[in-house]
Amino acid sequence: MVGGFEKNSMDVIDVHVASSRYAERLRGCFLDNFYKASFYWLMRVRCRDGVLSVKMEPGVRFHVSTVEPVKKKVDPFTIFVRRRLGNARIRDVRQLGWERLLRVDLERGGEVYGVVVELLPRGVALVVDDEEKVLFTTRYLELKDRVVKTGVKYQPPPPKGLSPKAENLVDVLAAYDTLVKAVVKGWGLPGYIAEEVIYRAGLFEEKSAEPAKIARADLSRLAEEYGRLVEEAGSGRGYLVYYTEGSEPALFTSFRPRVIAEEYGWSVRELDFDTAVDTFFSFYEKNIARKMVERKLAEKKGEVEAAIKGILERVRSFQAELEEYKKALNAIYENYEFVEQALLCSQEARRTQGWDSIPKLCSGVKAYQPAKGLIQLRVGGVEFWLDIRLDLKGNIIELRKKISELEKKIESALEKKKSLEEELGKIEESAVEESRIVIRPREWYERYHWLITTSGLLAIGGRDASQNEVIYRKYLEDSDIFLHADIHGAPVVVLKTHGREASERDILEAAYLTACYSKAWKAGFASIDVFWARGDQVSKAPPSGEYLAKGSFMVYGRRNYVTIPLELSLGLEKVESSVYGVYYRVIVGPEELVRERSVGYVVLKPGDKPVENVASEIYNKLVKTRAREFITLDEIASRIPGPSTIVKIVEKEG
Q1: What is the model's pTM?
Q2: Distance CA 33, CA 86 (A)
Q3: What CATH number does residue 39 fall under?
Q4: CA atoms within 13 A on the CB side of 262
């Protein structure tokens, strides 16, 4: 909450800036994949300079993100987009009118489509065809002013905002009783923007004044400042607003929020627009996810607590019944002859004169149940039932059986209660653990095998033949270094030089990726030869008359060879970010490289211990106590080449 306002979604100026920036950035890219996260959708967009992740959440946001969702799944909208728009080329990204409506224009096989994301309340995401008919929507809407459903021409929400180019900006203000309300309602701007424009126009002291009483020249200046603010927003800068240093961001803007800093005294951090938006919504995402986890765990906890309560009620009932049986047994033992005589009397009276005569003839008998063959005795202040068909010893045996059965029921119920209490404890531990959701950006290259060399060059390698193809097609440039091990099935590795001259050390370090993640590791080799060549020596074109299988390449000219020992270090790197704070990630490479960058690492060699066992040992030694929020067991397992032996474990402080 800033100045009495809060931000839960992108505002109209954010959408204006995003449409401009993303049009430039995404135009010509391809829709590589599409996923459903817990409460938003994720577009994978393949561009020349890498793969981008775009998060879209109706009513809230549309932005490029470096923070990956914890889990991805599919839903009907995901399935439709994949089938209809998979590998479609993005033609444009644009804002519809001056509203929080963003449209992505795509083309596939000569067919034109549009993906519309409505970022206003009750907004939906939908796909339209070239006639603007809705092909799919995340939610059907039937409102008084429009209908959104399959087969119907798309109707955007009625316009509510005014752009800075609108001719009636000044005139609409007169309809409201305060200046700030006039800007919010008349121009369709959120409160923090309204106050910023008023502040810049020098009218902050008059923000509660009636617009009709403010000079028209001042109102014209207000409109001009609105235009200047929107122009400034197009600079590509972004600003995060914090209540206090170290807190989570409360707000982001695409313009410098002077009124927030100068009048309200909040802290403002300047970044680029993409980082500011991504950071703000990453914290938003974390908080939503935390609430979802807490709600789910609270429901589960409630179910277990209700089950425990039910068990306790049954135990109390069993114990009360048990106590009655024990009292009866004690009364029988203490008054054995009297009870036996009453039972014999009752049997004789029933036989000779009928049930009704028993209370009259037999001392201590208070009631009877002919249908069940029972009589009720009162002895020493204790009342209990006896079976008239059995002798006293038989009744005692039956009482003991019932006592034993109840004791077993109580024992079983208490064991179940203990089990549920243990489950409850785990749920509470899980609530603490799962609510510790943190933000960790993931770079595009982390989907591949990767390392960053000592001199800062990025090396990426394919995890399979498909990724080998992608790396060659998308990322190999003439000045890069191409590396491959002399064994079938080794990863293609590209060392990105960006026109620089790669050193011998850079090449050796990059060579560890193709050597260690090759089949030589699983075969138990001690070392393997790796060759390298410049990117312009590599081609997918085979010699005349020959055929290249998927994932195969031709290298023309000289190959340079290095021998790489099959020994891989896996470490825990601590990253300190001014935006995301401190987080950890897994790095791999030769020991010398990993040692310098990690707070702890292991050295692996080919062995016979399964990957999952090795990963578990590494997790417990390096991750569990300090980085479990950031790194999963699966992530560690994905970086282990195959069955291994840990030959060294180094734990550092920090």
Answers
A1: 0.69
A2: 7
A3: 2.30.310.10
A4: 9
Judged against a pLDDT cut of 60, whether residue 349 lies above it is answered with: yes
Among 88, 117, 148, the domain-final residue is 148
Same domain, 581 and 518: no
User: Scanning the structure block, which residue is given the tokens 């109580």?
Assistant: 410
User: What's phi and psi for 514, nearest 5 deg?
Assistant: -75, -30
Confidence bin at 438 (pLDDT 50/70/90): low
Q: Residue 360: inside a domain, yes or no? A: no
Per-residue pLDDT of 518-555, as tens digits, reads 999 999 999 999 999 999 999 877 776 666 666 677 88
Q: Contact 219/212 with Cβ under 8 angstroms?
A: no
Question: Helix or strand or coil: residue 275?
Answer: helix
Q: What is the DSSP string of 541-604?
A: PPPTT----TT--EE-S--EEEEEES-EEEEEEEEEETTTEEEEEEEEE-HHHHHHH-SEEEEE
Q: Which of the listed residues 511, 544, 566 is the one where a domain comes to its end? A: 566
Residues 456 and 551 in one domain: yes
Partners of 241 in beta bridges: 251, 268
Q: Which of 138, 103, 105, 102 lies closest to 11 in space, CA to CA?
A: 102
Residue 430: per-residue pLDDT: 65
pLDDT, one tens digit per residue, over 46-61 is 987 778 999 999 999 9
pLDDT number for residue 66: 87
As a whole number of angstroms, the distance between CA 341 and CA 575 comes to: 89
Model pLDDT for residues 251-273, shown as the tens digit of each residue = 999 999 999 999 988 999 999 99
> Of the spans 237-241, 296-300, 633-637, which averages the highest pLDDT?
237-241
The DSSP symbol for 652 reads -
- Contact, 136 vs 126, CB < 8 A? yes
Asked if 24 and 129 sit in the same domain, the reply is yes
Task: Assess whether pLDDT exceeds 90 at residue 347.
Answer: yes
Number of domains in the chain: 3
> Based on the domain organization, do 472 and 524 belong to the same domain?
yes
- Structural domain for 524, as ranges: 440-566
Residue at 539 is within a domain: yes
**446 with 559, same domain?**
yes
Task: Calculate what percentage of the chain has a pLDDT beyond 90.
Answer: 74
Angle between helices 216-233 and 12-26 (to 10 degrees): 30
Contact 293, 435 (CB under 8 A): yes
Residue 243 sits at the vertex; the CA angle it makes with 241 and 245, to the nearest 5 degrees, is 90
| Residue 199 banded pLDDT, cuts 50, 70, 90 | very high
Q: How far apart are CA 357 and CA 346, in angstroms?
A: 9
